Amino acid sequence: xxxxxxxxxxxxxxxxxxxxxxxxxxxxxxxxxxxxxxxxxxxxxxxxxxxxxxxxxxxxxxxxxxxxxxxxxxxxxxxxxxxxxxxxxxxxxxxxxxxxxxxxxxxxxxxxxxxxxxxxxxxxxxxxxxxxxxxxxxxxxxxxxxxxxxxxxxxxxxxxxxxxxxxxxxxxxxxxxxxxxxxxxxxxxxxxxxxxxxxxxxxxxxxxxxxxxxxxxxxxxxxxxxxxxxxxxxxxxxxxxxxxxxxxxxxxxxxxxxxxxxxxxxxxxxxxxxxxxxxxxxxxx
Amino acid sequence: xxxxxxxxxxxxxxxxxxxxxxxxxxxxxxxxxxxxxxxxxxxxxxxxxxxxxxxxxxxxxxxxxxxxxxxxxxxxxxxxxxxxxxxxxxxxxxxxxxxxxxxxxxxxxxxxxxxxxxxxxxxxxxxxxxxxxxxxxxxxxxxxxxxxxxxxxxxxxxxxxxxxxxxxxxxxxxxxxxxxxxxxxxxxxxxxxxxxxxxxxxxxxxxxxxxxxxxxxxxxxxxxxxxxxxxxxxxxxxxxxxxxxxxxxxxxxxxxxxxxxxxxxxxxxxxxxxxxxxxxxxxxxxxxxxxxxxxxxxxxxxxxxxxxxxxxxxxxxxxxx
Amino acid sequence: xxxxxxxxxxxxxxxxxxxxxxxxxxxxxxxxxxxxxxxxxxxxxxxxxxxxxxxxxxxxxxxxxxxxxxxxxxxxxxxxxxxxxxxxxxxxxxxxxxxxxxxxxxxxxxxxxxxxxxxxxxxxxxxxxxxxxxxxxxxxxxxxxxxxxxxxxxxxxxxxxxxxxxxxxxxxxxxxxxxxxxxxxxxxxxxxxxxxxxxxxxxxxxxxxxxxxxxxxxxxxxxxxxxxxxxxxxxxxxxxxxxxxxxxxxxxxxxxxxxxxxxxxxxxxxxxxxxxxxxxxxxxxxxxxxxxxxxxxxxxxxxxxxxxxxxxxxxxxxxxxxxxxxxxxxxxxx
Lengths: 285, 321, 334
Description:
A: MetI-like fold, disordered C terminus, B: Rossmann fold, 12 strands
């Protein structure tokens, strides 16, 4: 039963070519992340200053950076970093945000007020400035970055999930469940949550893209990743000084970031189109 | 016999969808005389509203299209006019009011401004006289304290008041024909009565002809002179209100009238028409035959033609052919 | 309506308070000894002690915070460890640059975004619609520093049309009134300065605008699509209103009101993104100084700048909220 539903959704999803493109992009990303050691033609950290800032060639398909390192190899290994940070941080943020959002939305009252005030405060920092503040405190490093971006993502998760819970809470099936004497945790987990899952999935997908983007921003600003780790944003920052003569150092990692983020956004958008029934009815030829 | 104001001849409006062709209006004929209120009655989805949209040429054109027919208004075929010419007619000589007055009024403009817009479009008045006429219209539809209320927004009015504003907007330029698409459906019964009374007054005072679209036979009985019964895009019976209510000919009309609960009858079960309205994608033979308790063999194979039964009474049914 | 405004204002004070607390705590626990950072390299332990006492670093945490808060309210945001100047005066000096950049970007993003959104909605599923929506999505997916650098490479290096850093060429004299160079050149009638400041502004503003353009376009499109389906649009057509007026008078006003709600959030994105863009283009604003100060461990500066940006964002959101409730008559007249 559920398999046929998934199958029909899959068909609908694939009809949207952009969403399909997104899936290819992200799958590609996952593949190169997993198989990076096999795919990378050169070592990602080995420096060779005599070959620095060389454009794309047969030996170095995407050229070399300011330290003579192979850009292609660095991008391949960099995908591991972006993907790891993106997925892990959002996974953690989802768990915490889900918890906070459920409690705030379902129980309301003081708990809701308190949680939402804290969320408001965290969201008073424009864009990623909260992440900058946290990373100042924690310092650089992959693990710290995961925590930083996780904390940075929690407020919007909490808010969105709270909104979903509130909209479901009014529905009659919840009232019916209460009238039947179901206890709270049953209501939340067996009735309410399953109806929010599709929106949560859409939102999480979009946030992974966002997380990858913020990671690269922090890397670019020199706040996130320690050298010589091949993080895409940091790679770009290194190439800045050589922009005139060797733009490829800046261009290629940027394309990598864009593919990763765009892939996530396309999938998220495609999922939203499929899972939101209002958008499915089209009486057009 | 009064002059014929609007004559619809074999109008067909089809919708081209992914699921097939939907024949919303499938060959209907109508006549409206000057100063007459014609009721157009039928269940939801039978094409009544689409008939009105076709007359005024507001059919949403990517999926829909008027494929055949003539709409003769004051002698001229509206279907042959350009959009620019239609725009002069819309709101001017032919006006339309809609079912839900809350969603049909623009929420961000004052009601006075919305009425004035009609006047400005179709009449040669300027400045203060537009304002004066707006207030005049609001008073005709009996909105109290019109001058102050003209500065209010739609959400600040009750449902009945909003419908009056719609009517004021529609008749502000003295249309000769008013298309009223279920004007009372969204209102309480008492307000309904007031609006119907208002429509009757308009017919008396301004000689406005009205095409009153409704699914409520009670409304038809209250205010209409003639009635056309519609089913699946076709008119199955047509004639004088009194005649049709007394001696309904078509089985569908009989079913509709029979389904009205009556205080003076002691029946235990309500009579219903079995089945539901089919989707408008076309059926062989008479559209009504699956639900008809008087269907005969030929009903399954061919569409009945309309036949004159008596003075001003036509029916489309094989029982009378 | 006034009570609504008053209520909203009363909410921002605790929020700002909490924000200042968070910033204070973060800077307090950040690595590095403030006294050492202030004095620099060659210091004796006695000097360190003296400065530590002056800064009150041995006081309990809440005392330090309250002192900080009191000073901040009086307008004293401390002294920069690096320049030894008042943080507030530095920020005030840099503030207009960021404002000019953010406002210019917002204007560009709104003009392009709203136009694209409206046209896409009117020509739904046309080539323009599909292409612009994909481009919009692409724009949101591109890191803003990359866009800036690519634009710089094309227009500054390859074509030589625009400068690569700063706000104004050194040799041009401009009398500053507001600190917004474009405005000032217009006010003082200084054509050379106007041309030059625009040349400097265009690339940073354009690259920063790409963050928002896409979102505004998509939002305007969906808002417009929703409005066009509404019954009152049908009524307007039934009145005989010309199609142009139906779109630009009846539909537009309704469609734009929700877009206003998005503008506040967009400004936040722009303020944050300005940090990156200012770094890329060496634009002398608050964003630039935050990054530079972080790397220099000039914590009072970072503290002050973050506080200022958060304050700005909160105020803008308040203004957006208020104007939204003013623009929508259903809220204005309850």
